[in-house]
Amino acid sequence: MSQTAAIATAERIHVWDAPLRLFHWLLVIAMAVAFLSAEEASPLNNWHIISGWVAAILIAFRIAWGFVGGEHARFSGMWKGGGLGHHLSGMLRFKPTAAIGHNPLGWISALLLIAVSIVTIWTGALIVTSGGAAGEDLHEIIGWSLLGLVVIHIVAVFVMSLMTRDNLVRAMVTGYKRAGRHPDVSNARRPSFFSYLVGLAAIAAAIFGILQIDPQAFVPRSTESAEHGENQTGYGQRDVEHDEIGHEIDNE
After folding, report:
1. Residue-wise pLDDT tens digits, 157-177
2. Is 93 helix (H, G, I), strand (E, B) or coil?
3. Which one of 22, 98, 127, 164 has the lowest number of neighbouring Cβ atoms within 10 Å?
4. Cα(107)–Cα(81) distance, rounded to whole angstroms?
5. Angle between helix 136-164 and 18-36 (nearest 10)
6. Residue 80 exposure: Cα atoms within 13 Å on the Cβ side
7. Which band of pLDDT confidence, cut at 50, 70 and 90, is reported for residue 240?
8. Global confidence as pTM
9. Band of the pLDDT at 14, cuts 50, 70, 90?
10. What is the CA angle 233-52-48, rounded to 5?
11. How far is CA 107 from the centre of its chain?
12. pLDDT tens digit sequence for 211-224
C-alpha cells in the first residue's frame, strides 16, 4: 500500500457494510417506482405491483440482517450511545453528537419506515389476493403516510449532516465516515460468512412466500387487472379480448 493510500485509509472509518448499503439504495428505487406507478394512468403502472413485492423482499432481508449483519446494521445498535434524551438535548443546543452508526432518532426513523412499509405492502397484497378493491383506500392512506415519513427522513438526514458536519449520504454510498469526527473509534465489525447465508435464506424465503400469495408477482400487469382478479398482464388481457372478438366475427 502506498503512503498516500495508507493516509487516506487512516483518515476514514468503515461503518456501513455493502449489503446494507445495497439494501438501502435498492429500497429507494423500489419506493420511487412504486409511488410513480401508483396511478392507473401512469406509464409505469404495470410495474407498481412488482416494485411492491421487491420492497417486501428487501425488507425481509433487512430484518434478518438486523440480527446477523455488520456491527452498525444490527438492531442491537439502537441501545448504544447516550440515548434519545442526550441526543435531543444536543440537538436543542445545535450541538448534536456525531454518531458512528445510526443516532437514536435515526433508529426510530428506520424502524418506522420498515413498519409502515410492511403495512403498505400488506394492504397492497390484500387488494391483489381479494380480487377486488377491498382495502384500496387504506392502501392509499398508508402509502401517503409512508411518503410523508420518507420526506421527513430525507430532510432529517440533510439537517443532521449540516449540524454534525458528517456527510451521511456519502457514508451510505461509500460505507465510510471521516475518522476526525469520530476519535478513538475503530472500523466496524464486518458480516461473517454465516451472515450472508442467513441473508440469502431470507431473500429466498421471501420470494417463495410471495409466489405462494401471488403467482403473478413478478409479471408486469396493471393494478386494475389485479383489482379485478385477472391473471393476465395488461397487454395479455387486451390480446385475449381481441381474439375473442375475432372469433365471434368469424362465427357470424
Report:
1. 999 999 888 899 999 999 999
2. coil
3. 22
4. 12
5. 130
6. 12
7. very low
8. 0.83
9. very high
10. 40
11. 14
12. 999 999 999 999 88
- pLDDT classification of 57: cutoffs 50, 70, 90: very high
Number of neighbouring beta carbons within 10 Å of residue 202 = 20
Q: Which three cell numbers stand for residue 145?
A: 403516510
81 touches 104 (CB < 8 A): yes
* Rounded Cα–Cα distance for residues 151 and 13 (Å): 28
pLDDT score for 250: 53
Alpha-carbon dihedral sign for residues 7, 191, 155, 31: positive
Handedness of CA 177, 178, 184, 189 (dihedral sign): positive
Assigned C-alpha cell, 36 = 410513480
| Chain-centroid distance, C-alpha 188 | 22
Using CA atoms of 211, 216, 222, 223 in order, give the dihedral in degrees to the nearest 10.
Answer: -40
- Any idea of the CA torsion for 224, 230, 236, 239, to the nearest 10 degrees? -100
Quote the longest CA-to-CA distance of the chain. 86
CB-based contact 194:187 (threshold 8 Å)? no
- Residue entry with cell 475503530: 186
pLDDT of 49 reads: 96
Give the C-alpha separation, 165 to 132, whole Å. 50
Beta-carbon contacts of residue 158 (< 8 Å; ≥ 6 apart)? 169
